[in-house]
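F.,

This is the one I mentioned.
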């Protein structure tokens, strides 16, 4: 990728990636991800449902605010917009197929370059939707979810659905309509809303109540259109606290759930949670997963990680087995994701310029999730992990504690219980033991 390559030879030297097991030293093979291996009653491929991110993998140039692109793709110089888009899609489906990814995800402008002409953009996306439909039929790949990019164009500098200018909101609606149409035509299983600029930079010029009411109305309007036109999948909201705006209205899982509940959207929406977004909000990824799972809202995952020394969304490929093992404990106990999968919303580094780097990144991420799934299942099935947590709350399972949970005790009765029974016994939380337990099974 450091030099422009002939597209016909871009991935030709890369074999189909296969499972070879722990004894393999082949860097272009899976050591943990065996898609047919049954874990907790289901094959790995059903628990994990991996997807490739069209934007980072095939649009990410490696450019940053301080330097020009380092990943130079052959399709970028392939001719007009449709010719470039078809060349990119050919390469994308070849990559996804060789890697064995069952799904992919896209923003509208990832698939084909847009102009400022609404009708022309719709024609372009319709052309590429038909081309993608043919590619799906040829390869068996499926669309996990589609979405519209309502944050990159300068018209969206103050948001899309929350923009103070109705004209801008209407442009956002036009994009979402076209993206929903494409998602339906491709059999997309879900549709995502990420409010990259649905927020504010300063309250001095912001009517926050009106913006959130408009956002809710926008979501209802989009949802109603999709349902009228046959979409039966789940809508996802993806939380993020800030960046590019100072404060975004979809700050974290709890904030989004409260918003959906307030505006009567819970029945159609769940959450698409991203690792790096969780850490930017001051949470662990495990925390965000648990909040969503407890509310019955755990829909899908954008898999990546941040950098401990950088306070922004670096979108690196996941590599922390401890983080993912704890995350898979939450997912397993929740019964799995509801409708979604694990989308690698991650990009290779600016100085990773070989074609193989994109494969190494995905292989590592897929193997890591597979290892975490196996480890978490072993913890749940073979250790006293569950029993320790159950015992910690045992006082609420019988007697006065159970009566309190049933709502049968008054405040006066609680006072009398405290006075009668004296000072509570100090009971250990056993945190170090549990941390050692996770390490032992890893």
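My design for it:
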């Amino acid at each position: 990728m450091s030099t422009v390559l002939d597209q016909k030879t871009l991935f030709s030297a890369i074999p189909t990636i296969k499972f070879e097991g722990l004894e393999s030293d082949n860097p272009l093979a899976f050591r943990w991800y065996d898609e047919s291996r049954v874990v907790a009653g289901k094959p790995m491929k059903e628990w994990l449902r991996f997807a490739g991110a069209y934007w980072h993998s095939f649009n990410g140039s490696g450019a940053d605010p301080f330097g020009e692109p380092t990943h130079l793709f052959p399709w970028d110089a392939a001719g007009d917009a449709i010719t470039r888009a078809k060349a990119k899609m050919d390469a994308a489906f070849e990559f996804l197929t060789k890697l064995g990814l069952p799904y992919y995800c896209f923003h509208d402008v990832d698939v084909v370059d847009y102009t400022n002409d609404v009708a022309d953009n719709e024609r372009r996306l319709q052309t590429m939707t038909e081309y993608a439909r043919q590619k799906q039929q040829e390869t068996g790949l499926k669309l996990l979810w589609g979405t519209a990019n309502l944050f990159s164009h300068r018209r969206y500098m103050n948001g899309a659905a929350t923009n103070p200018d109705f004209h801008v909101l209407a442009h956002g609606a036009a994009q979402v309509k076209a993206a929903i149409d494409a998602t339906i035509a491709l059999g997309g299983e879900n549709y995502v809303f990420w409010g990259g600029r649905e927020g504010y930079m300063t309250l001095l010029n912001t009517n926050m109540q009106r913006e959130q009411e408009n956002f809710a109305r926008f979501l209802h309007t989009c949802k109603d259109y999709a349902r009228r036109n046959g979409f039966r999948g789940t809508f996802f909201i993806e939380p993020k606290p800030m960046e590019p705006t100072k404060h975004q209205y979809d700050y974290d899982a709890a904030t989004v759930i409260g918003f959906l509940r307030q505006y009567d959207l819970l029945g159609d929406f769940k959450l698409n949670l991203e690792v790096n977004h969780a850490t930017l909000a001051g949470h662990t990824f495990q925390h965000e997963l648990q909040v969503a799972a407890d509310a019955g809202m755990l829909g899908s995952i954008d898999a990546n990680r941040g950098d401990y020394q950088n306070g922004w969304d670096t979108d690196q490929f996941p590599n922390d087995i401890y983080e993912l093992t704890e995350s898979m404990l939450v997912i397993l106990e929740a019964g799995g994701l509801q409708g979604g999968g694990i989308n690698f919303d991650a990009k290779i580094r600016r100085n990773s310029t070989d074609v193989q780097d994109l494969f190494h990144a995905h292989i590592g991420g897929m193997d890591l999730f597979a290892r975490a799934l196996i480890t978490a299942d072993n913890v749940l099935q073979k250790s006293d992990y569950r029993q320790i947590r159950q015992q910690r709350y045992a006082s609420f399972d019988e007697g006065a504690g159970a009566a309190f949970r049933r709502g049968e005790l008054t405040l006066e009765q609680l006072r009398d219980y405290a006075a009668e029974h004296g000072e509570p016994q100090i009971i250990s939380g056993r945190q170090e033991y549990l941390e050692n337990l996770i390490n032992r099974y890893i």
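The longest strand covers residues 142-147.

Talk soon.
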